[in-house]
Amino acid sequence: MSKHPGTRQSIIDAVLRIIGEDGVAGVTNRRIAKEAKVSLGSVTYHFATQHEMLRESLLHFVAEETRRLTELAAQCQTEGMDADRAAATVGQVAGGTPFDSRHIAPFELYIQAGRDERLRTAADQSFAAYDRLAARVLTGLGVPDAERLASSAVALIFGLQLRSLATGLPAEELVDTLMLLARGAQHS
Fold this sequence. Notes:
Helix content: over 70%
InterPro entries: Homeodomain-like_sf (IPR009057), HTH-type_TetR-like_transc_reg (IPR050109), HTH_TetR (IPR001647), TetR_C_31 (IPR041583)
Order of helices and strands: HHHHHHHHH
Number of helices: 9
Oligomer: single chain
Keywords: DNA-binding
Strand content: under 5%
Shape: elongated
Largest sheet: none
Protein name: TetR family transcriptional regulator
């Protein structure tokens, strides 16, 4: 008997919602079953351990985010890159991210990856996708050594997003800050 993919996906979606609302500590099989509207037995049938559930949830997020970022990177290449296009792309990735429970969950999972090395490969895949997009944008803007600077740009974006999340204030300055740094790098 094969495991029903719809039930499995419902469980993963529930895990991401719960993590976004209450952190990893809030993930219990009973709560997952309630959130996913599945039986308690379905949770343990589809995922033998909590680690497996967390890992699969992070991998699911990474796959979705990688797909989204890859599409954006391809658009950057086919549509060209200027300051306005770069600002719009950065805004799409960072400034426009709604901080609902589904978008808070990855921050929790990244922190969990710091505690659990078995999750680090998935977290690394996610950051690699962000780095590729950042390198594409920086290259399109004519920033020298864009590949090397991409991870720093991503770290800045994540830091400003985390600050916005922690303070409740919008990250309006995010795009302006990144564009200022990109312009400075172009002239150095």
